[in-house]
Write a structure and sequence with these properties.
Blueprint: E1 6-9, H1 20-31, H2 43-50, H3 56-63, H4 72-90, H5 93-104, E2 108-116, H6 117-127, E3 131-135, E4 137-138, E5 148-149, H7 157-166, H8 175-178, E6 182-185, H9 191-196, E7 199-203, H10 207-216, E8 219-221, H11 230-241
Parallel strand pairs: 1-2, 1-6, 2-3, 6-7, 7-8
Antiparallel strand pairs: 4-5
Helix pairs in contact: 1-11, 4-6
Length: about 250
C-alpha cells in the first residue's frame, strides 16, 4: 500500500440507518420536551421547501429552531453524550467493522457529512475517525433561531473541496494513491465522493445509484436496519422529531 491511503465515509443512512439531524432532535427533546413547540418556527419553511420556494440549506437552518436559546455549553454536552451513547448503538455493525478494517490497514479515516458540525465532530471521535468534515454553523454563546452557514451546505462537490482544504495530504494524493482509497455512501448526491476513490461502497443504494454501481463494479452493502421501506424510515423521522423514538 502507498504511504498515503484514506477511507472516506458519509454519515446519514451510511454509517447509521437514520438522518442524524432527526435522531439528535429526538435526543434533545427527551431531555427538554418543551422544545417541541419550537418546531412551529420550522413549519412555514418546510412548506416553502415542499413548494420549491426555499432551498435545502434554508430548510436545514430552520429545522434547528428547536435548539433556539440553548447555551453553547449545554449543546456541547448534549452532542458529546449523543455521540458516546446513542451513535455506537445505532451505527451499523457492518460499517463499524469496515472502520476497524481500514484502521488495521493503516488508512486515514475521514467522516465527510452534510450534518451539522456541532455534533458531527463528536460522532467522528466516538466512531474512531481521524478527521471530520461537516456543515459549519455560526451559533454564538446561545443558539440562534436561524443559525448562519459558515461556508454553505457540505454536499455534492463541496465535500471534495472542503476535504482537500482541511485534511492534510488529500489534495496532494496522486492518481495511484487515490486508487487505493475507499469511499462509502448511500446517496447519489455523493457521486463526487464515491468517484474520488479507487474503491466505492454503496450502502442501501436507491435503484438509480445501484445501477450506476453495478455498471462500475462497486461493492453494495445491505446491513440490517430497523425498518424495511422508505415509508418506515419516514415514520421513524416523525417519531424522532417529536422525541418519541427510542434512544
Amino acid at each position: 500500500m502507498p504511504a498515503r491511503s484514506f477511507a472516506f465515509f458519509d454519515l446519514d443512512h451510511t454509517l447509521l440507518p437514520f438522518d442524524t439531524q432527526a435522531l439528535f432532535c429526538n435526543f434533545v427533546l427527551k431531555r427538554e420536551p418543551w422544545r417541541v413547540f419550537l418546531h412551529g418556527l420550522f413549519v412555514p419553511v418546510a412548506l416553502a421547501r415542499a413548494l420549491g420556494l426555499a432551498s435545502t440549506a434554508t430548510a436545514k437552518r430552520a429545522f434547528l429552531s428547536y435548539l433556539r436559546g440553548m447555551p453553547r455549553e449545554r449543546l456541547a454536552g448534549y452532542a458529546h453524550e449523543f455521540a458516546e451513547v446513542c451513535v455506537p448503538k445505532w451505527a451499523y455493525a457492518d460499517l463499524q467493522a469496515e472502520i476497524l478494517r481500514h484502521k488495521h490497514q493503516h488508512r486515514i479515516l475521514v467522516l465527510n457529512t452534510a450534518s451539522p458540525d456541532f455534533y458531527a465532530h463528536d460522532i467522528a471521535h466516538a466512531l474512531g475517525f481521524d478527521y471530520c468534515i461537516a456543515t459549519q454553523f455560526e451559533i454564538g454563546d446561545t443558539f440562534p433561531g436561524m443559525p448562519k452557514l459558515v461556508t454553505g451546505n457540505n454536499k455534492h462537490e463541496a465535500k471534495i473541496a472542503a476535504m482537500e482544504a482541511a485534511v492534510p495530504g488529500v489534495a496532494e494524493l496522486t492518481e495511484k494513491e487515490r486508487s487505493t482509497c475507499w469511499s462509502y455512501s448511500d446517496s447519489s448526491a455523493d457521486l463526487p465522493l464515491l468517484e474520488y476513490a479507487g474503491f466505492a461502497v454503496l450502502v442501501h443504494p436507491s435503484k438509480g445509484l445501484a445501477a450506476i454501481g453495478q455498471h462500475r463494479d462497486w461493492t453494495v452493502l445491505h446491513p440490517a436496519r430497523p425498518y424495511h421501506t422508505k415509508l418506515g424510515d419516514m415514520f421513524r423521522v416523525v417519531l424522532q422529531m417529536f422525541g418519541l423514538h427510542p434512544e
